[in-house]
Amino acid sequence: MNVGLFIPCYVDQFYPHVAIATLRVLEAVGCTVRYPLNQTCCGQPMANSGYAHLTGGCDENFIRNFADYEYIVSPSGSCTLHIKQHLHGENATHETAATAIRSRVYELTEFLTDVVKVTDLGTLMPKRTAPIRVGLHQSCHGQRGLHLSQMSELMAPPFSKPVQLLKQIEGIDLVTLDRPDECCGFGGTFCVTEEAVSAKMGKDRVADHLRQGVDCITGVDVSCLMHMEGILKRTGSSVKVKHIAELLTNTL
């Protein structure tokens, strides 16, 4: 499979090891991966702040970088959802390309379960030396936008694509949270405009994981994990925070 690796700007700047782990996972399942060097921000921060009309440059740059790939994969549910729902071209030709891209962009766990249909990822990854207790944070964009897992308020059969993958890795003990799909409070620019509310929501989310005695908190969105990691560091906690790609490649 010909994959274009879409790395959000904040991952590139602050968490490049997540991008490397994503690359390793994709290559382990047989993908040919390329990283377009001229990619930048997808435009989500501006759109979320009410300035969607200013994202045209980001859209055009994304189209130039990714139009020729069979699949586009990202370790970020929120950025993936933004492209799926909001990427547009400045003219008819570019709009055709944008429409095609919107149908070919995937969040990492979505791609692994729905496209690659991996069922035994553990055989392709390094073995874990010791078991760890892991709490999974279900990010809002991934769960409610990309439908990576079932929402707990719905009377429907439960499913979770991240859990499906984590259970294939030996030595990961997934805990059950009291509130499995509660928002962490990050919310992009919400954490700036409503700092106090955001921080309190994050503390509540972290507390749930701590009650279960986790060694590590994981998820599919580095932005949410960054928010919770900051809260943990300010309390001196030893609990680690890792993107799911890092757990799948046993880089803890």
Automatic annotation (TrEMBL):
Choose one Gene Ontology CC annotation of this protein and give it.
cytosol
Any one GO MF annotation of this record: oxidoreductase activity
**The Cysteine-rich domain covers which part of the protein?**
3-84, 134-228
User: How is this protein named in the record?
Assistant: (Fe-S)-binding protein
Question: Source species, please?
Answer: Fibrella aquatilis
